[in-house]
Amino acid sequence: MPTYQEMEQIQRRIEDGDTTIADADLVGKFVSWIPSYNCESAAEGYFSFLSSIATYKPTLIEPLLKKAIEPVYYLGYENSEEILSWAASFAKARNAMYVPPELGKVWLCEELPNYKEFIAKCLIEYMTE
Q1: What is the C-alpha separation between 122 and 129, in angstroms, rounded?
Q2: List of residues 6+ apart from 84 with CB closer than 8 A
Q3: End-to-end CA gap in the chain
Q4: What is the pLDDT of residues 70-108, one digit of tens each?
Q5: What is the value of pTM for the model shown?
Q6: Contact 97, 44 (CB under 8 A)
Q7: Distance between CA atoms of residues 116 and 29, nearest Å
Q8: Nearest by Cα to 54 from 3, 2, 108, 90
């Protein structure tokens, strides 16, 4: 299981233009990472990382997003509108454990809504598990 420091290093490498990290390895590390055992902090960690690299690795948004919404679902958000609202609030939060970078905040508010249908599909999967 990767540590926060390892994930932060991966994030910085991607932001700096490093293309040597295989997509499958990145997804595997993200899915096995536990940013926190608290659902709120875990959701913040996943969304912070996702929002940071979404611009650089758009083909990975859906596999990472599927994992990122899981703790938000367990917080009681059961539809895509609620999750998008949570993400927009998180983007504006100043006292979060994990804070997305400025570019990530923009992505959460402006680009994430484009994944509303995908989020709804993921929620259906979580509800039927």
Answers
A1: 11
A2: 112, 113, 116, 119
A3: 23
A4: 999 999 999 999 999 999 999 999 887 888 999 999 999
A5: 0.94
A6: yes
A7: 25
A8: 108
